[in-house]
Design goal:
Layout: H1 16-19, H2 32-39, H3 49-52, H4 60-68, H5 72-80, H6 86-92, H7 114-128, E1 143-147, H8 151-162, E2 166-170, H9 179-182, H10 191-203, E3 207-209, H11 220-226, E4 229-232, E5 238-239, E6 252-254, H12 255-262, E7 282-286, H13 290-301, E8 306-310, H14 322-330, E9 334-336, E10 339-346, E11 352-365, E12 371-375, E13 381-384, E14 387-390, E15 394-395, H15 399-402, E16 429-431, H16 434-437, H17 442-462
Parallel strand pairs: 1-2, 1-4, 2-3, 4-16, 6-14, 7-8, 7-14, 8-9
Antiparallel strand pairs: 5-15, 10-11, 11-12, 11-13
Length: about 475
């Protein structure tokens, strides 16, 4: 057996000094030779822990073994048996906390680069031409409405169409993809890739209706008159704010609005798109997750001279992916740890001029397992800024619950579901992804979509609730 390299095969990237001036994807991806080299690190375990670590249950050793042999066509077929979004997941999913975390090779050296290999196989297929359409079962005559075209909705739609059901996917915005198009920046997930994956699902037979706001244009009860079941995958698009003095000043954005303007409304392509967005010289982003990293890095690409992260805990507690933090640091984002805003101050013309902060120290762990940040008295100081992005979390939009009698919600407005099936309190209505859990990962939303699709299929067969 050939000697296994202790490190992952490196993925080439754009130099930081170049990429902050463009919106091109940062990593270049593997070549065929690099992919095969990395795939040969896989131990092909008899009991692959990586599969149990994958929310959508991909046959990981199976597809990697095929990549190692150079049979890339078969590799993508194996991937798509379980995942309708491999090009997306290979780029944005936290493999280091899921499949790669339990990789047996990772006990003694770096785990196999599962995400990079998934991306490679999907990109190889795209370069070869149109993707293959999987076979469908005999038509059942049953109809399902999928509300939301993000990761959960796409997964449900893709699974149900293969089961023989008719599927219509409703999207409120003018482009399908949910958070994949409005939230994740071009330099991390090119929108042509999302469009390609959406097109694939439509070629499978899913009907897509855009610019339809369910809860306003059509109610859930009206959908149930026309469809045999409804799946809600509307995400968590209601941003949280800090509720501190000055938060209503001009040029203070939620991360949702800031990234939507930059991504979906293409502010990064000025002057081709003259999207209104404040292009500050000193931009502060509040928060420590992936969305905060996206916002801080977007600010640089919109022309900021200084882009700050303000985070109330230490680097060790940051929920963002290690790779995203690393890329932000490479690009010159300035991190202010153990720091929390307490007020925003005006320049006298109703626009933000300074963010007043207080120093923090870490106390005992809270319910998240992370040490609780505690303010240090009389440690206030100010940072000059002209744009602020608040990225501290999101909740589901209350529109559908407020217009749907009998649909129960819980903490934070999340729709209450049975986690194993996605069933809600209202007969015929299922839900999954961020609308039920609050903001989480793409792959966890897809996992919820897969579980719900199985339960919807069973419900359509026997009518049992």
């Amino acid at each position: 057996m050939p000697k296994i390299s202790p490190q992952k095969t490196k993925m080439r990237e754009q130099p930081p000094e170049e990429r902050i001036h463009n919106n091109l994807e940062v990593p270049y991806g593997y070549s065929e030779e690099e992919a095969m080299l990395e795939a040969k690190r896989c131990l092909q375990c008899k009991k692959p822990m990586c599969v149990s670590g994958c929310p959508v249950e991909i046959n990981i050793p199976g597809f990697i073994g095929l990549v190692a042999k150079g049979d890339f066509r078969s590799a993508i077929r194996v991937l798509k048996e379980k995942n309708v979004l491999p090009a997306v997941c290979g780029r944005v999913c936290p493999q280091e906390e899921q499949c790669e975390k339990v990789c047996i090779l990772g006990k003694k050296m770096e785990p196999v680069a599962i995400g990079r290999l998934e991306r490679f196989a999907a990109d190889w297929e795209a370069q070869e031409g149109e993707s293959e359409i999987p076979p469908k079962k005999k038509p059942t005559g049953k109809r399902v409405a999928v509300v939301g075209s993000g990761p959960a909705g796409i997964t449900v739609a893709g699974d149900l169409i293969q089961m023989g059901h008719e599927v219509t996917m409703f999207e409120a915005l003018h482009e399908a993809g949910g958070v994949l198009v409005y939230g994740i920046p071009e330099f991390r997930l090119p929108k042509r890739i999302v469009a390609r994956e959406i097109e694939h699902v439509c070629r499978m037979g899913v009907r897509l209706e855009k610019n339809v706001v369910i809860g306003t244009s059509i109610s859930i009860d009206e959908l149930l008159e026309e469809y045999d079941a409804v799946f809600l995958g509307t995400g968590a698009g209601l941003p949280w704010f800090m509720n501190i003095p000055g938060e209503n000043l001009n040029n203070i954005y939620s991360a949702n609005e800031y990234l939507t303007r930059a991504n979906l409304m293409k502010a990064y392509r000025f002057p081709e798109y003259d999207t209104p967005i404040a292009r500050g010289k000193c931009v502060a982003t509040i928060g420590g997750g992936n969305v905060a990293m996206d916002s801080a890095r977007t600010a640089l690409r919109l022309g900021a001279e200084k882009s700050f992260i303000i985070y109330r805990r230490s680097r060790n507690e940051m929920p963002a992916r290690v790779e995203e933090i690393h890329h932000a640091e490479q690009e010159g984002v300035i991190f202010n740890f153990l720091t929390n805003p307490v007020a925003f101050h005006s320049n006298g013309s109703r626009s933000v001029k300074e963010v007043e902060c207080i120093r923090m120290q870490l106390g005992e762990p809270d319910s998240s397992g992370r040490r609780r940040p505690v303010p240090i008295e009389n440690s206030n100081f100010r940072i000059p800024v002209d744009v602020v992005v608040v990225s501290i979390g999101n909740s589901p939009n209350p529109l559908i619950p407020n217009t749907t009698p009998g649909l129960a919600t819980g903490k934070g407005g999340n729709i209450q579901i049975d986690e194993a099936t996605g069933k809600t309190s209202k007969k015929g209505v299922f839900a999954g992804g961020d609308v039920a859990t609050g903001a989480a990962t793409v792959i966890s939303a897809m996992g919820a979509g897969r579980r719900a699709a199985r339960a919807i299929d069973q419900y359509l067969k026997d009518g049992t609730w």
